[in-house]
Amino acid sequence: MTSDPRLVLLGGNKGFWHANDRLAESATMTGIESWAFACNGDYRQAIRCKKEDLANYDIIIASYNHSDTDKLIRLQEGRRKGCKWVTMIEADALTYIKPQQFMRELLDNSDLIICINRHTESFFKKFTTAKVVNLGLPYPAEGIRALSTPVKERRKEIFLAPMLLTRWTEYFCVRDLGVPFYGYEKRLSRTRKTIIKNLRKHGTVDPQFFFREARSLYNEPQLRIERETSLPNFFRYNGAASVWLNLDQRYTWARYVLDAAALQVPIITTHSTGHGEDFFPLTTIANEFEIDKAAELVKKLFSDADFYREVSTIPINKFDHLRPEVKKKELFDSLY
Amino acid sequence: MPEPKVLLLGGNRGRWSAKDSLAEATTMNSGEAWIYAFGGDFIQNLAAKPADLQGYDIIIANCDSFAIKHLYELMQSRPSGGKWVSLLEGDALDYIKPRPYVRDLLDGSDLVNCINKHTLSFFRKFTSAKVEYIGFPYPAEGIRALSTPLSQRRREIFLAPMLLSRWMEYFCVKDMGVPLYGYEKRLSRRLKTIFKNLYTHGTLDPNHLRTKARSLYRDSGIEIRQETGLAEFFRHNGSALLWLNLDHRYTWGRYVLDAAALQVPIVTTRSTGHAENFFPKTMIESEFDIDEATDLVQRLLNDKDFYDEVAHVPIEKFDEFRPEVKKKQFLDALYSESIITSENVKSNSSIIV
User: Fold this and answer.
1) Which one-letter DSSP state was computed for residue A33?
2) Which residues in chain A are closer than 8 Å to B287, comparing Cβ atoms?
3) Which of A225, B102, B149, B162 is the most exposed place for a label (fewest CB within 10 A)?
């Protein structure tokens, strides 16, 4: 091809923007939107998209979303001739193991499937007749490393990596270790579009609702609950914690592991993340229920400075395969 | 001590006693097996009232997620001196998401019966109550009596989960040229379920779930059987050549025990908890090791020696599951002094920073 193809990313978040409009975010963009930056493309919310909106693109990357599958099918069927449709397997691969309507049709009619967790590639290759490649997402490692904190300036704290109301395994693992720990929760949105839905679901529009819910369920005065924040602030603040803990049972893109590696903060995590064994082989446990082993690793990280240094030293060139230009080339090579 | 009077609170409907349905004891492979082991009674957990607990020495409560709050309230009114045992039924992954009442229920128990060995350390950190991995009694002899000799088995693969709950097994073997089959339920049309089913499925057609499975799988080659009684289940599936069960959950893993009792090879996952004991050569590490699962199925189909080796499970391997053994293990755990308390866990695990 003589010039770069015109690319649009269809995702679940709101908005319509071009990579050039948000260049400041590209240095810390760890989500699916990193494809829009890597390919200098557009982003659109899938559910608001019309067939005509896609007429001028050469490549459409559609992030799979269970609730929008029928919409994606219609957009896929209506794409212009010659336009390539790429379906990106977003979120936990375990959600694909339950039979669902339209799922196979969407995947089978794609020109390419981007798999985001290497352990699941062989499953998706059996699942669909379309070409499947474990491409994942571009990752802006340098931009995130620029926000890291030197080891000696870090707080002696453990960051419990999932949102507190999604999983509490991490808390039970470390609550008796005598080290302060903290995690995050969201504010309840009060925008016009969410207020009725939230009122119906939660019976309140109190923005602190999730904080109170987490406080009540954990029933743990030692637990500090931080409010969800922007990506740069997230990296700055959590790059200054000593250890992260993420006992993930899911098969996702596992950004926490990459983030910890970019910030050079040790993380105890699971094999299912797909990145644990590459970036943190000494602190990756086989599964989410190996909780005694996880607790031992936390203790070792706090008591053995050499071990801490060995785990946290991650050369930036370990991220070379995730560089935006490398990922972009892999995408085009796979498609064309 | 005299024989304790035991009540099991479970998710299924009804009230009955072990002596009322002795015929089922020889194939009962779930939580109800405790009723037969103790000669006890059963009451549906959501239907149970405080008065129903009177007179029992031990109450075993199946922790179905929909019944947690009710069980917690019921636990407060257990008879004086009565022991409350929480049975961790279902998938342990259900417990990793914060939910109200679940910690209160477990913490207030005299014993927590963990049903998957991989999850024991998690539950020991989760609750201040005593937790032991006991599981259920398993009637291996009764089930083996329903097995089929190797030479009479059908060259078919049984996809072990309900077809609408998971389709990984299908994708693993769909191109092998061997007939496949699985099960789906009939849609109930009983008075208590009719409105719920109409709301959920938009129909009362008893074949709705099978029709839905047929439409989603889009494979006329797969046989979709109707859910059946346990005895018939063992008879029919004991004569399949092999089973496939790529389970991602951490449950009691009955399919593995059933296959072992019937001496039918099963390709299954470590998370089941039993695979490494009964089928170490056909166990895969995770549910996504699908290429390895496919290779194992191929080998079982083509290598008779391998098949015979995997299928040969001596009945003595089930000795630890015998009702009298499980019963003793259960009573020992319940009436011995707890050696695991939150205090000694804390003192053993603290670190200085």
Assistant:
1) T
2) 94, 97
3) B149
Q: Bridge-partner residues for A59, per DSSP? A: A7, A84
Identity of the residue numbered B132: E
H/E element holding A58?
none
Q: What span, in angstroms and rounded, lies between the C-alpha atoms of A213 and A218?
A: 9
Instruction: Determine, for residues B98 and A168 on separate chains, whether the beta-carbon distance falls below 8 Å.
Output: yes
Predicted structure pTM score? 0.93
Q: Residue B337's pLDDT is what?
A: 63
Complex ipTM = 0.92
Nearest CA in chain B to A274: B288
Please calculate the CA angle A99-B91-A281 and round it to the nearest 5 degrees.
90
Distance, CA of A32 to CA of A44 (rounded, Å): 12
* Cβ <8 Å between A101 and B216: yes
Q: Please, are residues A297 and A285 in contact by the beta-carbon 8 Å criterion?
A: yes
In A, residues 13-72, which contact B (CB 8 Å cutoff)? none
Q: How close A19 comes to chain B (CA, Å)? A: 35
In single-letter form, the type of residue at position A168 comes to W
Tokens representing A316 are: 């930036």
pLDDT tens digits, chain A, 336 residues: what are they? 557 899 999 999 989 999 999 989 999 999 999 999 999 999 999 999 999 999 999 999 999 988 889 999 999 999 999 999 999 998 899 999 999 999 999 999 999 999 999 999 999 999 999 999 999 999 999 999 999 999 999 999 999 999 999 999 999 999 999 999 999 999 998 888 788 888 888 889 899 999 999 999 999 999 999 999 999 999 999 999 999 999 999 999 999 999 999 999 999 999 999 999 999 999 999 999 999 999 999 999 999 999 999 999 999 999 999 999 999 999 999 999
Q: Which helix (H) or strand (E) holds B328?
A: helix B323-335
Joined together, the tokens standing for residue A17 give 């923007």
Rounded Cα distance, A108 and A87, in Å: 10
Edge-to-edge strand list for the sheet holding B58-62: B15-17, B41-44, B6-10, B58-62, B83-87, B111-114, B131-133
For residue B212, CA distances in Å to A247, B159, B209 come to 35, 17, 5
Closest CB to B100: pick one of A156, A172, A217.
A217
What are phi and psi for residue A173, nearest 5 degrees? -70, -35
Distance CA B271, CA B275 (A): 8
CB neighbours of B267 closer than 8 A, spacing ≥ 6?
B242, B243, B244, B245, B246, B279, B282, B283, B284, B293, B296, B297, B300
Cβ-defined contact of B121 to A291 (cutoff 8 Å) = yes
CA nearest neighbour of B310 among B242, B233, B239, B236: B242
Q: Strands A132-134 and A112-115, how do they pair?
A: parallel
Q: By the CB < 8 Å criterion, does A323 face chain B?
A: no
Identify residue B69 by its one-letter amino acid code.
K
Q: Which of B187, B164, B184, B160 is nearest to B251 (CA)?
A: B160
Question: B126–A156: do the CB atoms touch at under 8 Å?
Answer: no
Q: What is the DSSP string of A243-287?
A: EEEE---S-S--HHHHHHHHHT--EEEEGGGSSHHHH-GGGEESS
> Which residues is B268 bridged to in the sheet?
B245, B283
Amino acid, res. A25: E
Distance, in Å, from the CA atom of A260 to the CA atom of A73, rounded to the nearest integer, reads: 36
CA distance B164 to B214: 10
State yes or no: pLDDT of B345 exceeds 60.
Answer: no
| Cβ-defined contact of A303 to B351 (cutoff 8 Å) | yes
d(CA A31, CA B180): 40
